[in-house]
Amino acid sequence: MHRSEPLRYGYFGPQGTFTQMALASWLSEDQDALAAARPFGTVALGLDAVRSGEIDRVMVPIENSVEGGVSATLDALNSDNPLVIQGEVLVPITFVLAARSGTTRAAIRGVGSHSHAWPQVRGWMAAHLPDASYVPTLSTAAAAEALAAGDRAPYEAAVCAPMAAEVFGLEVLAEDIGDNASAVTRFVVVSRPGAVPAPTGSDKTTVVLYQHDNHPGGLMELLEQFAARGINLTRLESRPTGSGMGAYCFSIDFEGHVADERVGETLMSLRRVCADIRFHGSYRRADGRPVEPTRTTTDQAFEDARTWLHSLRA
Ligand SMILES: O=C(O)C(=O)C[C@]1(C(=O)O)C=C[C@@H](O)C=C1
């Protein structure tokens, strides 16, 4: 693709997902790109479209403040052909209970929604619709879409974003049904590997670490590399590698940019102690909070130490 051509975006859809809201926020100053963005019914399909070059960027959910990591994204990002994160967006999560017009609460026997949404409304459901069974759907908006499309959905109501109820012309039977009013989901914009966004002083880096073997203190050996250089972790998850029972890798987000000296030194040390490291990008934090190194972990401190070592060797 020629450089001056606009970037082609996709998102985990259909229309009306929280992911589409995240993309709208990311592209708030590029309405043309937003209007042209393509929905993909699963995270894996969206990431594959980036891999194959069909689109340049895709917005996908990666982490929820109540339910934790979105394993479909963590695993698909890290499959054979690793992709990189270009940026992140935080979206406050507000759920509604939506149904076809005229549906009463008493008529609801099943409720459709995404598997990450359901645990976030479990308390409300137990209190208000204790007999309704949960029907998993590909996304919150897919649940709303199927209800609107006809009477063949195996449920009578959907748990979705207020926007999905509006897009698919459903009636809102109850608002704000999330058990945790401050729930937030973190979404990431993903691309093929290429130029890393320039450091901004408020950056995060994502990596996946693979150990040589499972041994006492193995995880501590990885974590002490970060601790020794004053690097704060913001997410740590163990994911099965798929190669056998008990074989795990560690998916980690930490503060700092690959261009920072302390991050470079940490990655070099990790490279020595790990069997493999997947780099999934350095990108600006959504909250814009500055990442301040301590006096002993500034770029200058590392440079001074290196100059000193060179002087000894000379
Ligand atoms: O189904 C959607 O609307 C999504 O965008 C996915 C998703 C998720 O994967 O966590 C996003 C936010 C909510 O926490 C629930 C579902």
TrEMBL record:
Keywords attached to this entry: Amino-acid biosynthesis, Aromatic amino acid biosynthesis, Lyase, Phenylalanine biosynthesis
Site (Essential for prephenate dehydratase activity): T185
Domain ACT: 207-284
A GO BP annotation: L-phenylalanine biosynthetic process
Residues covered by the Prephenate dehydratase domain: 8-192
Enzyme category, top tier: lyase
Keyword flag Lyase: yes
GO molecular function: prephenate dehydratase activity
PANTHER family in the record: PREPHENATE DEHYDRATASE P PROTEIN (PTHR21022), PREPHENATE DEHYDRATASE-RELATED (PTHR21022:SF19)
Name assigned to this protein: Prephenate dehydratase
Gene behind the chain: pheA
